[in-house]
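Continuing from the previous page of notes. For each protein in this section, the sequence appears first, followed by its structure tokens. Read the first protein now.
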Amino acid sequence: MHRQPGPLGPALRPLVGAGAGLDLTPARTHAFVFALVFVMLNDPSPSAPARCVLITGGLGFLGQAVARCFRAAGYRVVGIGHGAADAAEVTASGYHRWMSGSVTTDALARLAQLGERPDVVVHCASNGSVPYSLEQPLDAYERTVGSTMVLLEHLRRHAPTAVVLYPSSAAVYGATPDRPLHETDAPNPVSPYGFHKQMVETLLAAHAACFSQPAVAVRFFSIYGPGLRKQLLWDASARLLSGESPQTFFGTGDETRDWIHVEDAAALMLHLAERAAERATMAPAADVRLEIVNGASGERVTVRDVLGRLARALGSTTEIRFNGTVRAGDPRFYHAATTRMHATGWRPTIALADGLAAYAGWVRTARSTTA
């Protein structure tokens, strides 16, 4: 990206002041002009326009964390999604511009007309629920797969070099043995949610191979952290703080999960976006391919263990039991191989114990303000 001309920087002003009004000889003139050119090229004052990131589903749990992360890195952050966001909420969530609504051709065209041309797109808009995909598979498909096709067609026409980051899911792996899961393992989803995530990965691969659209799919395992108001930890927190004991949960308790804090998840997205953008400038268009990376800590934790840790963090003495019933769409084992993620030069920074403590504190505050 070319640097834009701007006002004279501090390093240039003394030279202009020294040269103004002087009767310079040709040799001195040549030296003076050379010095001016050198300073103009190296003076840090003129700055390039900020790179722009578009985040779909931008007011969701992950979308807001991604917005804050990219904004802190100096990006112009544009979002689209659902949620009644006033100006204060938009700013607090990290956005410079926000558009309420679904990911449609018209909505994306309006953003383009406003001059928003993304360098990076983080596509968080999708159905986020396994049970919903079982209850309403068509709508879940439209939210996940349909919105992706609309987005990719827009980018193909208007931003063909933008890097697409997609938060995919370990649900693509589906039913697996109790071992670390590698990105090269054959997909085996057990719910429409998992199949839809796999379909999106296929679309990304097609647009990378056929249209040279750089893309990275991050197969996140279990994302958690302050702001999460659904899934196991949120539901369990309410029950552990209810004062009723025992509390019985689905499954055996021996199911495994691999947890990653939402701030780490957002930081991984930023890291992979910048890495993909750098690689895209060096690779011939014919060599552009979808990259798939697991997003997890690599720590195998049983559901029994994580609920026990959460109870202690909440200060709850509730007895935890399990009914032995496996719910539809819930795989037994999720444990990520993180070799490929580490090979990109990134590792998570927030330990599960610290993350659960922070989450427990947030839960108590959230429940007290909504009670």
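Done with the first. The second protein uses the same format. Note its length before scrolling.
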Amino acid sequence: MSAYDGRFAAKMVLVFRANSGVCSCRQHCPDLNAGLRLAATTATPLVGINGPSPPCMSWRLSSLRCGMAQASPRLPVYHVAPVQQDWRDGFLYSVNVNGVAAGYLGSVSQAIVWQDGVLRQLNCKNEGSPYAHGYAINAAMQVAGSCYRTGGNYAVVWDAQGNPIRVQDDAVLADTALGINNFGHVVGAAGRIAYVWKGAKVKLIGTLGGTYSTPQDINDKGAIVAASALPGDTAVDAFVYRNGQMKDLNWPWANSYARAVNAHGHIAGWSADTPYTTYAILDNGITITDLGRHSSTMGINNLDQVVGTKTVNGDVRAFIYTHGRVYDLNTLMNTTSDPDWEIHVAYDINDAGVIVGWGILHGSYQPVVMTPLT
């Protein structure tokens, strides 16, 4: 079998289609009758509520359970309010265990921290950098981000008092800091290569054979999720880096991107078969869950609740995946929230169910905090 055929074999997977109530074998080959010889094991036939589905091939599953439809769960109701009435054109990317969020506010071109209804700016102006972004926050209130100035940008970590610390060593000055765990370990990009920084040396992780890689998140066990170009830079694959080893996640479709990882090592991200057709993915190491077409996952908590964005009939909507189903967050707002809110993207969710992202209110882009009431 050629390496090309091997990639198709790797993409014939058992996928649990969210919202369907049925387990099915979903083939990811351009022609199911092409007669490719696939070196994979035959999976156990699956049984869903509509009867048995045919056997299919799996590259890392031998079976997938699908239960009968359950009673409708009690879903949370969220209160949604602008993070500050007069601060607009921004995003909240990350929320920590205590409900404190970090992001960016375009109206002041600065990184921000939101806590208990109050916004605080983070900046690098003392170093001559007029612009800053905050991308991730941990329990200790450290924020990973970037400062921007003429000629380029550089990675920083703001401490709990708002002081920026450069991510660098004697040889490397990192460009971006995109993720941080509760030990203060940071991941980002230095040049075009993913790195991890633990306060001293900037350790480059490398690639899957291409010329660039970009990490997005790191958990407290040190698992790093990222994406890397493949040889020739013809495609991008999601990967996880653990114990000094990179592992291609081999998600279905031509390109894939890992976005977030929880304490259990479960990974959220997306795959794409064209630049305009994405599929949100939840990967628990055993089962790949496809959350639907034209969707992307952005964040995951330790309950395996996933948030992201989905396009429905041209309309961009934030979603939550919980209790085995995908729900439009715009349908879960309480009656005291402004009915003109349009929540477009949910970036992160903590274990208490607090969700952060951005939306549009009265024609203005605004950072959003969604607080569950039930």
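What the second structure shows: Residues 89 and 106 are 5 Å apart (CA to CA). Helices lie at 3-10. We return to this in next week's lecture.
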